[in-house]
């Protein structure tokens, strides 16, 4: 609650004290030519090299050139959904399943730019556990950070694919300790981002198997989320945020070595003795950020939104199939 109030006060102070220009123009030649608007972006987890594109965008001045003084705030995706839905924050990084949950709760949130072009959450286990497909989860002890967020949704989706429910497994809330829990045998398998647990264990010489949601069901992955109030009142701010983000993602993909070094400036604890593992995490993340063949950078497919809306209704996390067209918009992408 204290975190919510502080963010809310911050947002109110910004709206009261910061003059808002009627629009933000195209990218300027230098950031000093553009008045700066402080914007806080809610992202999940903790400071991590997986947020490298945003560190790159800050360091290289891509956001500043769009009039945005960007900072990142770290926490839980479901908490940020409420903050963005109540306009206490203008933006967050979220996955499509969270948009369905938010819309079902009456939160006016909308996904406006795709970042992860593949759904990044998997179930992983030691190779000798023999867990290689969704049906193998039956009767197993499966670790998740908690019954929330994309890791929980991924587990429920894979259970649904296998015709299983939560009652067919033993689900354990283990926080963000998936790699340790699997390696120590505290759980048979765990839900995690593909570039986290499996990569960490690989660095320790532990082989794993992974079950990816994308192999069975296409649903939109992590991207930029805002709210209807921001879209209505400040559409140019949304477009500026998208332009800078896409530019930063592209630069990161084109210049991975430089991007990794920039990330270490923002996450110094990822260097030193942790550098090798974090470079492996960073390298494993790059394919997830690369546009798929034929994909317009930042865009998502209407059919994928319908799929996630139907999934959450089918597994009982919402009481109806949310109207998929209300969940997203490709209309704020460059060239639209």
Give the topology string: H per helix, E per strand. Answer: HEHEHEHEEEHEHEHEEHHHHH
Q: Which whole number gives the mean pLDDT?
A: 90
Tally the structural domains: 2
Q: Just give the CATH class of the largest domain.
A: Alpha Beta
Helix content: 25-40%
Helix/sheet category:
alpha/beta
Number of helices: 12
Low-confidence stretches: 1-30
Shape: globular
- CATH-scheme architecture of the largest domain: 3-Layer(aba) Sandwich
The CATH superfamily of the largest domain bears the name Periplasmic binding protein-like II
Q: Main β-sheet, in a few words?
A: 5 strands, mixed
Descriptors:
336 residues, disordered N terminus, D-Maltodextrin-Binding Protein, domain 2, single chain, globular, 10 strands, 5-stranded mixed sheet
The gist of it:
By secondary structure, the protein is an alpha/beta fold. The chain has helices at residues 2-17, 52-59, 77-85, 96-104, 149-161, 178-183, 197-203, 228-233, 235-254, 256-266, 275-289, 302-314; strands spanning 37-44, 68-75, 91-94, 109-114, 121-126, 141-144, 170-173, 189-193, 208-212, 223-227.
Account of the protein in words:
The protein contains 12 helices and 10 strands. With 336 residues, the chain is of the alpha/beta class. The strands form 2 sheets. The protein has a 5-stranded mixed sheet with strand order 2-1-3-10-4, with helices on both faces. Helix 2 packs across helix 9 and helix 4 crosses helix 12 (302-314). The relative contact order is 0.17. Residues 1-30 have low confidence and may be disordered.
